[in-house]
Amino acid sequence: MTLAPQDAEDRRRVRPVICYPTDALPGADLALYGAALAQAQVTETVLVPPRDARSIRVPSGAFLRIVSVDGPQVGDLNLFNAKDLSERFYSGKTRALHGTHVSTGDRLWSSFPALRPMATVVADTLDWYGIDQDGGSVHDVIGTRCDPYTNHLLSGQDYHHCCHSNLTRAVAAAVDMPIEEAQGLVHDVLNVFICTGFTRDTGQYFMKASPVRPGDALTLFAEIDLLAVLSACPGGDCGSEHSSDTAPCYPLLMEVLVPPVDALVGWKMPKPNGYVGGHGARG
Q: 194-208 burial string, b = 16+ CB within 10 Å, else e?
């Protein structure tokens, strides 16, 4: 290890600066969304089996509710613009804007060049959890999703029910696409219900048993037409391991709730990002 310089502590005491102050971000009208949700009716449900994935379409102005059923279970969520699959959830930018974990009032942002809110978190029954003594919190935008490639790298074994593979099969089925092509659309996820953080001594990504219980739910408002694809992680509550046929696993429920047509007066679908483009190459 390199010998610390004499001014090491002075350097460490430099105050942090927030990279992306969010004061100028378009705000979410949670009062409007909450009133609309209170009037919304369930129009479609999809049960996601353990160690598998399913998809559901959510029209703009409706809600997607993800519900824990039967037992503690985490899920890996991909979101797409239902009309243009090249616009998809951007976990890294969501993390940069809102932090490592999201909850009520935070927005899920889409990929370049659109970079706009795809969905807004409007209700979270786990918002009481906060940040625990280990630095863990719920609903992360840190993890990439468990996948068969990393699993093989670490264990030498092929496992086909990692969330990446589950999502790939579900995307392929949803849009009638070959598996090889669908895999390229699967992206880093919102880890619904998972409890994660970074160890203070080594800075390693950790998971711990999720506090989720049957009946807990995360509810999103669809700012644009969405194709939502959810995997019920083979890690179950992720209190022991990823990619496992031994961890207890349970289904997850996806519900679409549609409010009355007059419940969202004043709401408008977010426009794609206003950057002019060109990246300086055209003068």
A: bbbbeeeeeeeeebb
Neighbours of 143 (CB within 10 A): 22
Please give the distance of CA 71 from its chain centroid, rounded to a whole number.
Answer: 20
Neighbours of 215 (CB within 10 A): 9
The tokens describing 117, both together, are 């809110």
β-pair partners for 45: 255
Helix or strand holding residue 121 (H, E): strand 117-124
| Spatial separation of the C-alpha atoms in residues 113 and 121, rounded to whole Å | 22
- C-alpha 150/C-alpha 54 separation (Å) is 23
Count the alpha carbons within 13 Å of 39 in the hemisphere toward its beta carbon.
Answer: 12
Helix (H/G/I), strand (E/B), else coil: 39: helix
Q: Can you give the residue ranges of every domain in the chain? A: 43-258
pLDDT tens, residue by residue, 85-140 = 999 999 999 999 999 999 999 999 999 999 999 999 999 999 999 999 999 999 99
Q: Are 117 and 107 in contact (CB under 8 A)?
A: yes
